[in-house]
Amino acid sequence: MTRITVTVDGVAYEEEVEPRLLLVHFLRDRLGKVGTPIGCDTSNCGACTVLLDGRSAKSCAVLAVQADGGDVLTIEGLADGDTWHPMQRAFHEEHGLQCGYCTPGMIMAALDLLKDDPDPSEEAIRSGLEGNLCRCTGYTNIVRSVRRGARDMSGREVTP
Ligand code: FES
Ligand code: FES
Question: Tag placement on the chain: N or C end, fewer CB within 10 Å?
């Protein structure tokens, strides 16, 4: 067992973990962060995406020990109390989800994308989210949601 110290959604944890434990299992099974789903376990679908030290990471492709000393943000850490994060609200208002399984990963990946490109074009969004799969194939509304989320986060109007 290895002792790790990691901050998750603003709370510091110190835990003993097996070296082979995946970060997604640590989040879900140890910390109860079940808002981060597992879609494939083979780093293909992106459902498990979180921000690790501010950048998106597929948490099924990261060992918990690799997050030692790190700062993890999951979908559960986005809202401010009862107030949704603008990107969460955008997905709701633009119907960017159907079954919702891919949604946490889509939102976290979108936030990572906006760090490099705060006003992404539709093409940039499709390219930036290509590692995230939606089995309900609602990509049009997902793209629209990200555009609206980007606008709401910056106070800009969406450009055509
Ligand atoms: S569960 Fe991690 S990429 Fe699918
Ligand atoms: S909304 Fe069902 S997988 Fe994307």
Answer: C
